[in-house]
Amino acid sequence: MSSTATLQANRPKGSSSENSVEGPRRYLIGGNWKCNGLYDENVERINVFNGAGAIPSNVDVVLCVPYIHIPMALSLLRDDIEVGAQDCGNNTGDGAFTGQVGAHQLKDIGCTWVIIGHSERREGFGMAGEPEQLCAEKCKIALEKGLKVMFAIGEKKEEREAGTTMEVCAKQLEPLAAILNEEDWANVAIAYEPVWAIGTGLTATPEMAQDTHADIRNWVKEHVSEAVANAVRIQYGGSMKGANAVDLLKQPDIDGGLIGGASLQEDFFNVIRGVPQ
Ligand SMILES: O=C(CO)COP(=O)(O)O
């Protein structure tokens, strides 16, 4: 494998995509490939993205590929799309943590973003799931190692039906607000992903999503600060695709998306081009 220096050679330098306290919030569109694709298939997907046309100047795009395909993505993917991971360990450095990938290693190889607290990891898919406190600690470690974080939160179907959506989101945000300082928030985006909408084809209506995004922003205003609330980007995730992106992205508190299934296809670019201009 080529050296890290080679992998990073054509990647954008610096962190152009952090939250800005001045001016409008930039849109943030993340792709989450989850555990999909053999090597050649994912090379082909990247080739498709490389030829998929321009990215509007008010959008930051990041693609979170499986760990094992990160070096390939760093080498081959167009340099106006950042490369991220879908999780990282809670270890702060090297050590005896079999199977773990540390934030320091992700940063070293050239990743700029990581998703933390995705509902699939909180749930655990048959293994121990990740509790709220652990997600917050992992976020803090990732930030300390120089990564930006898409911190995922969201309620389950029965919680929405019981009217406890915001209670659930607040419970997921509380340990985060307790552990982060004000500067940390410049490198955090909140990904609101209602669990019932993930991979189901059921999307929250734009109004429903907007209401929850506004509630989340208001929570940040009350529990962190008004400046952070104004600057923090809140992405929507859950069956978002080209066909519904425009209506979601024009909502005032929806600052982007975190896209699963549609990010495996060229339709990801319809989402990117769906941001208001
Ligand atoms: O989980 C998601 C992104 O993290 C959303 O997945 P889908 O877009 O496939 O519903």
UniProtKB/TrEMBL annotation:
The keyword Isomerase applies. Keywords: Gluconeogenesis, Glycolysis, Isomerase. The keyword Ribonucleoprotein does not apply. Pfam families: TIM (PF00121). GO terms for cellular component: cytosol. One of its GO terms (molecular function) is triose-phosphate isomerase activity. Residues 1-23 are annotated as: Disordered. Pathway: Carbohydrate degradation; glycolysis; D-glyceraldehyde 3-phosphate from glycerone phosphate: step 1/1; Carbohydrate biosynthesis; gluconeogenesis. GO terms for biological process: gluconeogenesis; glyceraldehyde-3-phosphate biosynthetic process; glycerol catabolic process; glycolytic process. InterPro entries: TrioseP_Isoase_bac/euk, Triosephosphate_isomerase, Triosephosphate_isomerase_AS. Catalyzes the interconversion of glyceraldehyde 3-phosphate and dihydroxyacetone phosphate in the glycolytic and gluconeogenic pathways. Belongs to the triosephosphate isomerase family. This is Triosephosphate isomerase.
